[in-house]
UniProtKB/TrEMBL annotation:
Family annotation (PANTHER family): CBS DOMAIN-CONTAINING PROTEIN (PTHR43080:SF2), CBS DOMAIN-CONTAINING PROTEIN CBSX3, MITOCHONDRIAL (PTHR43080)
PROSITE patterns tied to this protein: CBS
InterPro entries: CBS_dom, CBS_dom_sf, Diverse_CBS-Domain
Record organism: Streptomyces pactum
Protein name, entry field: CBS domain-containing protein
Domain CBS: 8-65, 73-130
Top-level taxon of the source organism: Bacteria
Length: 139
């Protein structure tokens, strides 16, 4: 059985909810990633911040990324998957919620992220095509 831990990109990092968006953008640049999980005071997942969130939800709205926090951008219920979950569960979670990045949690701690690129490296071409159809097709 292939698990989430088998296909994830290990070493994902949190951004604390009180951190500003300009700092989050710097972390994304340094890590060469497009999304960061947001943690609360107890290092629990409380959201995910994407580079698009920063641009569209902050900069394009005329807000200052040096004064808006990651927590200000956290909306909805964050989705995640256990490290020992089967890859079919990973696909189901991402497809059902139409998300492109999924934090991987083990013992209530962040251990990695699964992105579309990770799926492309570990799934067959047919599985990737089916995933893309479900994520990008109009609902």
């Amino acid at each position: 059985m292939t698990t989430a831990a088998d296909i994830m990109h290990p070493g994902a990092q949190w951004i604390p909810r009180w951190e500003t968006l300009d700092r989050a953008a710097q972390v994304m640049r340094d890590l060469d990633v497009g999304a960061l999980p947001i943690s609360d005071e107890n290092e629990r997942l409380c959201g995910i911040l994407t580079d698009r969130d920063i641009v569209v939800g902050c900069v394009a709205m005329g807000h200052d990324p040096a004064s808006v926090t990651a927590g200000d951008m956290a909306k909805g219920t964050p989705r995640w998957i256990n490290a020992d979950a089967d890859v079919s569960e990973v696909l189901h979670e991402m497809e059902e919620h139409r998300i492109r990045r999924l934090p991987v949690i083990d013992n209530k701690r962040l251990v990695g992220m699964i992105s579309e690129a990770d799926l492309a490296r570990h799934l067959t071409d047919e599985e990737v095509a089916e995933f893309a159809q479900r994520i990008y097709a109009a609902s």
